[in-house]
């Protein structure tokens, strides 16, 4: 489901907080594909991460393996573009699956459980730069954050399908039934913010999918604030 519009204002202090990222949840992005035989262990790991309250786990299915025999039913070119954006920001020449990006900063092989969990714990210890609040009333979400370090930040709203199971009939995973968690269906940049004044943002959304709000440094930089409404 898409975000329909957003209006930004900087008036007053937002007091009603239904979801607040006080402890700085860690954002884990998994770039995966149903056509990738190396991805199921990473998909399973994302299931575990999605169950945690201190992690926002998001599965971004890419489309560049569709040609090898199975078209990923969740694959989105926008996800592929986002992964390429991270590669450019890190001066990396290739993209791959399964890849996990932790808080927009650490790029890891998504099936290496020890390395992924170590990175998650390090980022939990650091916390987030900004606490983000999110309230939903009907089709309107209101987002808030107090002033902090000055920068160029993008306010992003993400929607996801919490779970799905797929019978894969062709390609590298032919004959397997694989469960997926937190499958991204929309990722919209709705505003920019410099951090100098309180952030007060209202956006209209549709559908009943969970809502994730991210503050990310422009240019696929670090994620500096996050919250979600499941």
From TrEMBL:
The keyword Signal applies. Residues 1-21 form the signal peptide. InterPro entries: DUF1223, Thioredoxin-like_sf. Keywords: Signal. The keyword Signal applies. This is Secreted protein. The lineage of its organism: Bacteria, Pseudomonadati, Pseudomonadota, Alphaproteobacteria, Rhodobacterales.
